[in-house]
Amino acid sequence: MQAIQFFNGKFVPKESITFSIDDVGVLRGFGIFDYFKVYNGAPAFMEAHLNRFESSALLLGMEIPFSRNEIETAIFKIIQHNEFPLSGVKVLMTGGASPDGFSAGKPNLVITNTAVSETNPSFYAEGVSLMTHQFTREMPQVKTTNYATAVRLEPIWKQKGHIDVLYHDGHYISEVSRSNVFLVEGNKLITNEEGVLPGITRMNVVNLAPQLGFVVEVRPIALSEVLAAQEVFITSTNKKVMPVVKIDDQEIADGKVGAKTKLLMEGYAKLLAEETKQPSFQN
Amino acid sequence: MQAIQFFNGKFVPKESITFSIDDVGVLRGFGIFDYFKVYNGAPAFMEAHLNRFESSALLLGMEIPFSRNEIETAIFKIIQHNEFPLSGVKVLMTGGASPDGFSAGKPNLVITNTAVSETNPSFYAEGVSLMTHQFTREMPQVKTTNYATAVRLEPIWKQKGHIDVLYHDGHYISEVSRSNVFLVEGNKLITNEEGVLPGITRMNVVNLAPQLGFVVEVRPIALSEVLAAQEVFITSTNKKVMPVVKIDDQEIADGKVGAKTKLLMEGYAKLLAEETKQPSFQN
User: Fold this and answer.
1) Cα–Cα distance, A70 to A67 (Å, whole number)
2) Which of A72, B131, B145, B244 could form a disulfide with B157 if both were Cys (CB 3.0 to 4.6 A apart)?
3) pLDDT 10s digits, B8-53
4) Which residues of B touch A104 (CB under 8 A)?
């Protein structure tokens, strides 16, 4: 059975979704998206992701050509049809065909549902390492399609054995290319807010923290603090709560996954099981 | 007769040029381009534009899937076939279909040739006005497809009666969204180089300046200096040498097109006529 996707009001196979050379999504990088996981037909935190998608559209001055209800109906239709045990849903909107090669046109709205594999379990058992790079993202609070710097850097961080890049401005960190950052200091979780994407997993971890005995401190974080932290982890839809044990050539603490990060990994897995009504989760 | 374009080695109508939902040009804004004008079949400064295209590819780590010779042959084929009196050629390369929604794939190369009209003559006779905006472009030296901030701002500057936006970092200017900036002070032309796209028209004006009695000074330019300048003009392929007479609500000098800017407009028109072997040009 062929998987279906949603493209401007129609349910079509993926091959039918194409963008013209006049689309400012192609020509001018003018597009937004959001992304969430679906576990046996149950979307995880869909409302929060669609809220953020609407906020991204508002901040770029784009009008979403379908109602929230139409979008949710389309999502349920494609995930029920496709029947993937584990998948991702991406809602993507480009600025549409431009009359002059620059001005936005009538937006194109696409919803894709793609089967995915679970992340490598060793990333959770052993922790991961990050490369640092001085760079400030444009419009960090908007989930635009602009990841040119990250895509350019990917072959470099892979070649060095890292799994992603941590951006900083020379003094303070902002975020990993597609994740938020947390430090652990005693019973404190420290995370930053300015100049970073308002992550949905980040929000869930912040909400979860008090039940697990943590106090959350939201403030700018210096790169030097990250390097000297007791524990470091990153959060995102794809990475969930992922321990970081090395940055560039330097180990974080003893280079092992920290006990408090493990507590949060378990806590988040439980939250995800509740949200998606699944029996249990393993990282 | 239908116009033809070049798409990955084939000569096709524009409608046949499409990008898939897996192309990192769409998904991740990973693409570069360059653009030049063609006057009665004669490309203007094509070599310089193709040199810059190659430099953009190198800086992003992208491999161009056709040789320089193949690209030039394709350009001449489409412009000779299309026979537009005045047109633009865009060479655009996207990162191609991604295996995982993030990593670049095999690049797609497109060359389009589109008929264009000459710019509104009143922009040269009366000068134009710009809006200012605090913003630092990512990878300014690379001609990427990322213009999301400019596309977002366009409805705002239009509504205020401006023709474009001048970026600054709070103190120093960088450039207009698609143009370089020059100030005139006595017989000096002042222009900046760091943090700006190496413009081809900018380069031509710099080379032309001595013959017209100007000395060129290349250095950072404060926004306050621009507002207090004797004359201001911007340069680009589309705008050529275009006088700026107002920024936000403030007139530059007496708000009229300056005599030295006129000299450079004429000088550049003459250079363009020589380059393209056209009888003469009017701004």
Assistant:
1) 5
2) B131
3) 999 999 999 999 999 999 999 999 999 999 999 999 999 999 999 9
4) 151, 154
